[in-house]
Amino acid sequence: MTNPQQGRWSAVGRLLQPHRIKIIGLALVSALGALAEAMFLVTVTHIALEFASSSGSGNTTINAVGIHLSTRSALAVGGGLIAFRLAAALIGVAVATGITAAVITDLRQQLSHSYLKTAWSVQQKEPAGQLQQLLVTYTQEAVNSVTAVTSALVAGLSLVALLGVAVTVSPAASLMVLLVLVALGGVLHPLRRAVNRFSSKAVDQELNFAHEIADLSNVSLEIEAFGVRNRVINHLGGLIRDIKPVLRRVDALVQMNTPLYVSLAYVVVLVGMVFVTTLEIGDVSAISAVMLVTLRSLSYGQQFQLSATTVAEGAPVLHSIDDTITRYRESPHPVGGTPIEAIGPIKVADLCFSYNPNSPTLEHLSFEINPGEIIGIIGPSGCGKTTLVHLLLGLREPSSGTIEVGGHPLATIDRRSWAKLVGFVPQDTSLISGTIEENVRFFRDIDEELVARAVKAAHLEDEIAAMPEGLATRLGGRDSQLSGGQRQRLAIARALVTEPRLLVLDEPTASLDSGAELFIRGTLAELGREVTVVVVAHRLSTLEECDRILVLDNGRLATFGRPEELAEDNSFYQSALKHSQLS
Ligand SMILES: Nc1ncnc2c1ncn2[C@@H]1O[C@H](COP(=O)(O)OP(=O)(O)OP(=O)(O)O)[C@@H](O)[C@H]1O
Ligand SMILES: [Mg+2]
Fold it and tell me: Is 324:350 a contact under the CB 8 Å cutoff?
């Protein structure tokens, strides 16, 4: 839940911090442009009034801001001031858009880097769609806030410059204008607070909405197969309707800002005119000039108000981005540690793990795996096989107990050297958008020969050769062009391509045909090295390949031994075979 009470300007201030030089430049350009505009307005008022009083002779002198000029010179000065103002405004636009583009780029970099550098256990907990929502929608909101701040800056400085010029013409009238602007700001303050409060609610609802959409887009196959399109349409409709009131309220409050401001400003102008005409104070040209400057000031004031409201609207989004980046950074992915060059014996001692404190998932596991062994892990669904595999890979931290590899605690081993030695085939395989070759390489520098070897070892060679574009065939998205078994073998090629010394397979229940099933022994022979294999086995044929089998039951180690021994001696193993639906 986003906290609406956090400073409205603080989050956007932090975003702008690295760009302060550019912001000072923008302020300078804006102030100069506004000064030129104010001088232009004063000059034009004087020209018009002098022109009217001298019946258009054109030879009168103009006394604008204390300088005496002929009408022609005054007109030329006016033209020059306008040209200067335009140039300043264009430079201002270039600087402001430069700042905005830099902010969105910085923010996206920070978000994606912090996400990719956070521990996998944190990434794994993030709801579907969270990162997309943050990177796409929220960064756009951040841009709106930054644009609002730069335009508030331009408006604020323009106001100051205009009032500065007005003071030289009529100090009393200018003071009144200033008081009016401050009062208008005060009157509209509660409106901005309300915008901030409702916008904070909208942020939370929109995030939930994004998660639901992401989940639904992943199950389009099931939606079609179960014939529940209408139900899903209704469900989505409900979600969309739930967000509507709060979105509408935020929008209404934002939209109310301008008419309220303008109406109040006009009332003030009217009151000012009544005041001036009743009291008959000041000379006409000074009052007219101040009036013109006041009107312009009011429009800058309006821009300032609107910007402040936009910042109030965007603040909860920025705080949500800030909180997310902080949360990611608080649990960094481990770096450094002891580099290793070989996978020694794996020693697990009194290992416990739980996802939540009240229900342990793995309890007091102790066992050893020797280099070169093929270990099968079996047990009923939900007994903790995948969890154990993740712990052995160092993806999760044990709640207690230790895992040592070659005498080094797993947590202290350098992740890079570890990743080079380990190949992993997860239970659910995902493809990335790219070619088959890129999917096998998976962001690692691997030469073509190794890719070809891995594809061959995973029994994918013939099928890929039959595709018109071979390894360059593009995959990704829903339309992957691969069967479930082919995807699985591609995942195996991805794991084998680095020629790992520890191969961990969280075997799928189906997908591999009988030819591909036998890949483990054959592949190891092809690799010609000592490879330790840990395989979560769902098939009897896989178990036959194993040197030893670890039987898990409800998070506990039931037994660990050679398959023939277990088949003969262990009644639990035999019943586990039945209960694990091994076929
Ligand atoms: N990310 C998670 N957060 C919370 N609980 C989880 C998480 N992942 C798994 N669990 C729970 O931990 C237990 C063990 O899950 P695990 O995935 O390790 O089982 P498994 O033996 O691999 O099952 P299967 O054979 O069905 O793949 C289950 O009760 C599961 O609900
Ligand atoms: Mg599993």
Answer: no
Ligand 1, atom 3, lies closest to the CA of: 355
Distance 125 CA to ligand 1 centre (A): 13
Nearest CA to ligand 1 atom 5: 355
β-pairing verdict for 434-435 and 474-475: antiparallel
Alpha helices in 219-228 (DSSP H): 220-225
Residue 294 CB coordination number (10 Å): 25
Q: In what helix (H) or strand (E) does residue 553 lie, and over which residues does it extend?
A: strand 548-553
Residue 503 has a CB neighbour count (10 Å cut-off) of 24
Structure token pair of residue 234: 């209704």
Locate the ligand 1 atom nearest the alpha carbon of residue 356 and give its number.
4
Binned at pLDDT 50, 70 and 90, residue 3 comes out as very low
Question: What structural domains does the chain harbor?
Answer: 10-330 (1.20.1560.10), 346-579 (3.40.50.300)
* Nearest-CA residue for atom 18 of ligand 1: 384
Using CA atoms, how far apart are residues 192 and 267, in angstroms rounded to an integer? 21
Ligand 1 pocket, Cβ-based, cut-off 6 angstroms: 355, 361, 379, 381-387, 427
Average pLDDT value for the chain: 83
Query: What's the gap in Å between 580 CA and the centre of ligand 1?
Result: 15
Cα–Cα distance, 291 to 297 (Å, whole number)? 9
pLDDT of residue 581: 52
Measured distance CA(471)–CA(41) in Å, rounded: 70
Q: Which residues of 326-357 are buried (b: 16+ CB within 10 A; e: fewer)?
A: eebeeeeeeeebeebeebbebbbeebebbeee
- Residues near 413 by beta carbon (within 8 Å), at least 6 away in sequence: 337, 338, 339, 340, 394, 405
pLDDT of residue 439: 92
Return the bridge partners of 424, or none. 504
Q: How many residues does the chain have?
A: 583
Q: What are phi and psi of 360, to 5 degrees?
A: -65, 140
pLDDT digits (tens, 9 = 90+) for 186-210: 888 888 888 888 888 888 888 888 8
CA distance 457 to 496: 8
Strand duo 400-405 + 408-409: pairing: antiparallel
Ligand 2 centre distance from Cα of residue 429 (Å): 12
Mean pLDDT of the 234-247 span: 89
Residue tagged 């070897």 (tokens): 453
Q: Which of 30-44, 277-291, 315-329, 393-407 is least confident?
A: 277-291
From the alpha carbon of 389, which atom of ligand 1 is closest? 18
**If we measure between CA atoms, which residue out of 158, 178, 177 comes closest to residue 39?**
158
Split at pLDDT 50, 70, 90, the class of 5 is very low
Residue nearest to atom 29 of ligand 1 (CA): 382
Helices (H), 331-446: 385-392, 415-421, 436-441
What CA–CA distances, in Å, run from 246 to 202, 204, 214, 242, 450?
A: 6, 11, 22, 8, 56
Does residue 59 surpass a pLDDT of 60? no
Tell me the DSSP string of 57-117.
Answer: -S--EEEETTEEEEHHHHHHHHHHHHHHHHHHHHHHHHHHHHHHHHHHHHHHHHHHHHHHH
